[in-house]
Amino acid sequence: MTFGELEGARTVMLVDMASDPSRLAESWGAVIGRIRQVHVLFIAPEAIDALSALEEVSAAELLQSIRHRSLVPHVCTYLPNERVALVEHSLGSVSVQTKTECQPLEWLAAFLCELPSAGPGQAGVEHASGGC
Amino acid sequence: MSLKLGPAGVPLSCKGRTIVEGMDDITSLGLDAMEIQTVRTVQPKHFDQYWQAGILSWGSDLEMNLHGPYYAELLGSKRERNRTLTKMEASMQAGKIVNARHLVYHVGPYGEYEPGAEANEQVVNIFSGVVDRVHQIWGDKSEEEDYAAFPWVHKSKPSLVGIETSGRQDLWGTVEEVIEVCNHVDGTVPVLNMAHIHARGHGRMRTSEDYSELFEQVRKDYGGKKFYCHFAGIEHRMGNALHYTQIKKSDLKFEPFAEFLAEEGSWLDITIISDSPLLEHDAMYMLQHYDKARQRLLEIHAREERRIKLAVESGMSPEELEMLEKEAAEARKASSDGEVEKPDSDKPAKKAKKPVAKAKGKR
Questions:
Q1: Which residues in chain B have their CB less than 8 angstroms from residue A71's CB?
Q2: Cβ of A35 under 8 Å from any chain B Cβ?
Q3: What separation in angstroms does the CA of A40 have from each of A69, A122, B222, B244, B310?
Q4: Model pTM?
Q5: Which one of A29, A34, A71 has the shortest CB-CB distance to B243?
Q6: How far is B90 from chain A (nearest CA, A)?
C-alpha cells in the first residue's frame, strides 16, 4: 500500500499472519529485505507472538526492537480487545486508548489519514493514534 | 577514477521481483553495481537465483555485493554472537555463489564492552575468523569440478569483508574503530556509510572539504584507493540516526560529495550504494549530480585553457592576462555602478575597454 506525497512516495507495509504459518520466516525475511523503503510498518496483533519468536525478543519489546534495529520511522500495532494503539516512532513511543472500538485496519486507515496533518513529533503521533 | 553506483536491492521500479530481473533493470538505468540484501535469512530457493546472478555478473561489468544480517550482536553474549554468526555464514555462502566483491556486515551494540581497545580486539578476533571462513568457502579445490560452469569460484579473488560504520552512539562502528579493525585484519575493508557518519558526527558531512578530510583520514590510516560507501538521506538527532529519508529531504546532500569526487577523486576506485528509501531513483540522482560536477569542472578547465591560449597568442603570460582581466572586470563593475547612478551616460562603458586596448597597443 502506498500513499502519494509531494516528493516521492511513502510506503506502508502490513505484516499479518501468513496463510501457511510455516512460511512466516520467509515472508518476514522479504519484509526485512525491503525494510529501508518502509515508512510505516503495521504488525497485525495476531502476528506479534510469532514474530517475537522469530526475532527472539519478548512480545512487549517487539515493536521497539524492530524500530531500533531497522530505523523504520513508525512501527505500530492495534490491539482491538483492549482498544490500545501502540506506536514506536523516531522520537519516542506512544500508547493510546482509542475512544471507540475498531478493527486494526480501520485504526491504521485513520492513523494514516491523521498523520500527515498531525506532524511527526510525539504530540502529533499521539493525536493521530487516537483517531478511530 | 573508477566510480560504480547502484541500489541496495532490487530496484523499486523493477516489474519483476528476482535479483536477475533487478540486475537487468540496473544495467538499463546506466548503473553498474548492486548490493543484494540477505538481511535476515537466505532461503535455499534463493540459491538458484544467486547462481544466475553470479553468471550474469561474471560476464558483465555489473559489480555484485552482498549485505549480511540487518542487525548484529557480535559484541553480545556467546548466544547472541553465535546467532549472528549463523546468519553471517549463510550470507558468506551466498557471496561466493553470487560472485560478491564485498560482503557487508554490522557489528552491533557495544554490549558489555566499553568503547575502546578491548571491544576493538574482540571485533578483530571475530572478523579474523570471518575472513578465514570466507577464504575456506572460496578456496575449496575439491569443488573445482562441481563448479566448472561457474568460473569465478576459481578465478576471482574471495569477497572482501566490509565492516560498516554505524549511525548510533550505542553501536560499535565509528570511522576510527572500523579503520583500526580493518588495519589488523587482512581481507577486510571499511564500509563508509555516509549517512551514519553524518548522523554520528552531529551532521559533519556538509562540504566537499569534509569529504576530502574523511577520505584523507582513511587513506592515511588505512591506505589503498579502493572504497566502498553507502549513501542515503538521514534524519538524525543528538548524534544518533533516527531514520532514512530520500536524499533531497535530508541535510546530508550529495552535491558536496559529487564535487569532491569530480575535483579530487581521480585516485579513487569507489563503489557507492544507494540505500535510500528511493533506491535506484536516488542512485540515478547521485549519478546525475556527479556528471554535473564533472561537467562543471571540465568547463572551468576549458576556460582556463582558453585563457592560457589567448595569453600566448597576445604575447602575455597567463598572470599578466589575469591581471588585465581583473582590471577590466573592476572597470566594468564601476561602469555598471555608474550606469545605475547616471543612466544617460555611456562614458563608463568605454572606460571598461580601455585597459585591454592599452595593453594590446603597448605590444
A1: 167, 241-244
A2: yes
A3: 14, 15, 39, 12, 61
A4: 0.85
A5: A71
A6: 13
- Beta strands per DSSP E along chain B: 2-7, 33-37, 63-67, 102-105, 160-164, 188-193, 226-231, 233-237, 240-245, 269-274
Helix (H, G, I), strand (E, B) or coil at B236: strand
For the record, the C-alpha cell of A88 comes out as: 514506536
CA distance B147 to A48: 42
Pull the grid cell for residue B185. Answer: 585484519
Nearest to B40 among A10, A11, A32 (CB): A32
Instruction: Report the residue count for chain B.
Output: 363
Pairing between β-strand B240-245 and β-strand A84-89 as defined by DSSP bridges? unpaired
The interface pTM score, or ipTM, of the predicted complex is 0.83
Mean pLDDT of chain B: 88
Q: Please give the Cα distance from A122 to A68 (Å, whole number).
A: 17
Distance, in Å, from the CA atom of B128 to the CA atom of B122, rounded to the nearest integer, reads 10
pLDDT at B341: 57
Chain B residue with the nearest C-alpha to that of A30? B40
DSSP B265: G
Helix (H) or strand (E) holding B333: helix B318-341
B362 to B118, B268, B316, B327: CA distances (angstroms) = 74, 48, 11, 16
Q: Residue B350 — very low, low, confident or very high, per pLDDT cuts 50/70/90?
A: very low
- Rg over alpha carbons for chain B, rounded to the nearest Å, is 26
Give the span between the Cα atoms of A72 and A60, in whole angstroms. Answer: 18
The answer to whether the Cβ–Cβ distance between B246 and A7 falls below 8 Å is: yes
